[in-house]
Amino acid sequence: MKITIPKGTKDILPGEINKYKYIENIYSTLLENFGFEQIRFPVFEHTELFQRGVGDTTDIVKKEMYTFKDKAGRSLTLRPEGTASVVRSYIENGMSSNPQPIKLYYDITAYRYENVQKGRYREFNQLGAEILGSDSPNADVEIMYMLNSFFSKLGINGLQLNINSIGCKNCRIKYNQMLLDYFSDKLDSICDDCKEGIKRTQCA
Fold first, then answer.
1. What pLDDT was estimated at residue 100?
2. Is there a domain that residue 4 lies in?
3. Is residue 18 part of a domain?
4. DSSP letter string over 90-116?
5. Per residue in 51-92, pLDDT tens?
6. How does strand 75-78 pair with strand 67-69?
7. pLDDT tens, position by position, 102-140
8. Side-chain-facing half-sphere of 39: CA atoms under 13 Å
9. CA-CA distance, 202 to 173, in Å (whole number)?
10. Is 96:133 a contact under the CB 8 Å cutoff?
11. Torsion on CA atoms 158, 163, 164, 169, rounded to nearest 10
12. pTM of the complete model
C-alpha cells in the first residue's frame, strides 16, 4: 500500500523554501525593528487552554481542533492558533513583573480540521504579534500600522483597512435581542449551524 501525505497538508519543496524564508525574514526583521521579541511555545497544549482562550462555543473549539489523550489520560490539543499560548506563557513565566508592555511575535505551524480548499490547509503557517500589559488603544494602532508596513514591504499595495466593533456590554445585549427577534420566525429556513449560533446567543 502506497503511503501518501495526509489530506490538508503539503510538502514544501526546495524550490518553494526560499519564498517562505523571504517572507519570514521580512517579518522577523520588521517586528524586531518595532521592538518585538520572538517567542516559541509547544505544538500542543492542554485542551482547556483553547477551550477557555479561544471560546468553547466557537467553531474552532467545537469542530476544528485536533484533540487527543496522552498515555496518562490527559486531554491535549495541537495548537489551532498562537494567541492563547502566548497569553499562557506570559502568565506562567511571570512576564507581568517585567517592564510593560511586553511585545512578542511568533512564526508557527498551526492545525485545524477544516474543509480543504485551494490555499486552505489543515496544517498551516501563522505569523502573529501580541502586545500584552497595555490597555491603551495605541497598542492596537501599532499592530495595524506594523501589519500595513509588512504588506507594503512585500509589495502588496492598495489595501483598505476596515475596523469593526462588537460594541459595549450594554449595546451588545440590545443588538443580540434584535437578532433573536429577527430570526424568531425564520428558524425553519436556516442551517443547523445558524440555529446553534442563535441558541448560544440566547444563552449569552
1. 97
2. no
3. yes
4. HHHTTGGGSSSPEEEEEEEEEE-----
5. 998 877 677 888 899 999 999 999 999 999 999 999 999 999
6. antiparallel
7. 999 999 999 999 888 877 899 999 999 999 999 999 999
8. 22
9. 10
10. yes
11. 170
12. 0.84
Domain containing residue 178 = 169-203
Compute the distance between CA of residue 145 and CA of residue 153 in angstroms, rounded to an integer.
12
Say if residues 102 and 90 touch (Cβ distance below 8 Å).
yes
Single-letter amino acid code for the residue at 174: K
Same domain, 18 and 91: yes
CATH number at residue 19: 3.30.930.10
Integer Cα distance of 46 and 77 in angstroms = 6
Q: Is there a domain that residue 96 lies in?
A: yes
Whether the CB-CB separation of 64 and 113 falls below 8 Å is answered with: yes
What tens digit of pLDDT does each residue of 7-53 get? 999 999 999 999 999 999 999 999 999 999 999 999 999 999 999 98
Amino acid at 192: D
149 burial level (CB within 10 Å; 0-12, 13-18, 19+): middle
CA distances from 62 to 30, 55, 59 (A): 35, 9, 5
2 domain residue, yes or no: no
Shared-domain flag, residues 81 and 178: no
What type of residue is 70?
D
Q: Are residues 91 and 176 in the same domain?
A: no
